[in-house]
Design goal:
- By secondary structure, the protein is mainly alpha-helical.
- The chain has two helices and no strands.
- The chain has helices at 24-32, 35-67.
- Helix 1 packs antiparallel against helix 2 (35-67).
- The longest helix has 33 residues, at 35-67.
């Protein structure tokens, strides 16, 4: 059952020991015993990629400005 503190979206971890080499979506399922754990991991991966893309775009703009002498 899901914990009331988590909003009921994802069940608590069931105590299964998951090694660090386990692929992300599989480990979410094994740790929670529910597909909701895998879906949460997928959402976190997508949000992290979006955040990193934004930071990379800022870095590219700064590098282009310094290469072409603009400030």
């Amino acid at each position: 059952m899901a914990d009331k503190k988590s909003g009921g979206l994802v069940p608590l971890c069931n105590g299964t020991v998951i090694t660090w080499t386990m692929p992300p979506l599989i480990s979410g399922f094994l740790a929670t015993g529910s597909i909701a754990g895998s879906i949460l991991q997928l959402i976190n991966i997508v949000l992290d990629c979006i955040r990193r893309f934004d930071l990379h775009a800022i870095y590219v703009r700064i590098e282009q400005a310094s290469t072409y002498g603009r400030k």
